[in-house]
Amino acid sequence: MCDAGQVRLARILSVVPLLAAAMLAMPASRADAQSAAEIGQRVAALADSMKATQKLLNAERVRQALPLDDSLVVDGVTVLFPGIAIDARNRNAVREGIIDARRSLDERFGAGTSSLLDGDLWSITFPNHAPNAPFERAAFAEGRDPSARTRNGDYSLPLSAGEIEDFMLSRAGRRLMQRNAVLDEFVGVAFSFRDNERQAYVARRLLALSASSVARNCAAGAMSACRAVLNPQARDKWFAPSDSARPNARAVPLGVHGSLARTALDVGGPRFLQAISAPNTSDEPLVILATAAGVTPDSLLRAWSAGLNESGATNAEPTLAFAAAAFFWSGFFLLIATRRRPR
Amino acid sequence: MKRFLAPLLLVVGAVMAFFVLVPEQSTMTFREMMRDRNPALAAIQQRLDAQQDSFRLLNGARGRLLALEIARRLPRSSQRFAMSADRGVPEAVRLSYERVIRDELAPVIGSLQHPIRVHFVNDVQQEGRPRRIAVLPRDATEPCTLVLLIAAGGSERFRPLTNEQVVSTCGFYATFGMPGPGVSSWLLETRGRHAAGFSLPPREEQNPRTRLTSTNAVYEPALTACVAGDDAACEMSWDGPEWQARMTTSDALYIKETRGTVAVPPSSARFLPGRNLSDLRRAMTDARFGELWRSDKDPAAAYLDIEGRSIAHFVRERLLLEVEPYRPGPLRAELPFMLGIAVAAVVAFAGITLTKRARS
Asked: How big is the A-B interface in CB pairs under 8 Å?
């Protein structure tokens, strides 16, 4: 009853500013002639109102946010969450996800790699949650500020250990790249310790469908073209004169860079993880990645290009549905063909 | 073997039928997902939305009025093409836009049919990307003025987007001169929305990724009816009440005072396919389009006179390009099914042959 009353009151109150905003705009439509400067004053007043409302909304979000009154600490990773929202099953998923991610990092990339996650602090919040409604979507954000709107992950409940593992592997990748300023800028958030195959497939598509013919040549296997589009300092070589793209356009998105960095990790193994923090000997990300992987830039490019092509072949394999359909119809025809005819 | 095959087929068939027949769960749209379901927060958000709507309307009118005022008081230039800028406009932004404008006008720069004026404004109330507003000339003595509102003290990182149209309606003036009375009044009535893009890239020249990721243009009932063959729907799509209604919701303030201005949307390359002058120009020869441009009738009627057929044909042909299936890669989507049938035929043939042999 109390909730219903509050809702009604909130609805009534919401109409007042609506009317005020409408009144602010209405006289303008009826005014005979005003200068741009006069309307500019009205615009400035509206902008101030919007800022005030946004501030109110932020404050209300903080007030309405469920308290982060429970936590999990798993192998050095702390996760805060509202105890009411995360039941035992979801807690287990978070716990298993973190453990799996750490194990995967240590087993695949060398003991101690999981230390990239050490000291991480995450909050699980429910920004769009309605009171008395079931909990549906959980937002993962770094730190403990419930008003922070920057979400690093958004998942439906119930959480799965696989999702949390992928999330942690991505965050570990981000942590690694942050150790090198040039690479951090080169790949942004596009580097992950997750399997490279999907990323390589997406990178191949992005290259093949780029507005830049240089990038498309790279997708076709031209190493010099790849080197040009992957070099942030060679902007003038990203597009051929015949390409219909503006000078400010990007030849390839960050996902392609992420896939190259991921290949460098595969090639270099544990050595790459150590070498990435060393002082750079070049400004070119490709050279830095190749040096960290212990190979020449051309070798890295060839390995990357081969990975892209393999990913295309793997993704073109028939699906399970296709196999089931083929089996069904084959069997059906076989059954008819071998039926016993009445004598 | 048959004893096992029949039940196995039944099971596989049942599983397949389950996946085919069970309705897909409804997926939430991004907007629904982001909407706050807490009533107290939703009420404040609603208030903020209303303020933002008012702000957008009022600020839109302010920009048009400002452009109009500036265009009217700019000193006349003896040159057919002139560019100028307020003090304080970031040079990098100005240069990048100037380059785009010169590129767009390159085919006609040597033989401008109407003077073009470009002015960059250091606008203290502009935020984010530069806004482009074309101020149409009232007579042949006035230039077509393109006013770019650049955020004062704003970031220098703003550059024209890929395929961004800047010259807009002024490009038609530069190429074909002053429009005839019919087209002129049509431009004023529609506030130039159908003429905001001047040098739209044709669909086949567009970046394939844009084609793959852009929304399907044929999402309105009238457009679907047009594609299906309804001429009346095509004509209505070109210049119908639907556009008038849309215009009034996004551009409802100071209509009279801002008459003669055209607000250029940031991504006019994908703007109103099949319902803009640029597409129409591309579908006609330059000579015929010039005739249409100088006509004393509105474009639809002029098109009928010149081409001898209704504008509906042009709209439909252009929309059909939008719905044309496009699949990247060497494989066709039907190939797995065709392969499946081929495999089934081979197995069936083998079965029949083996059965015949066993019986003989």
From this structure: 201
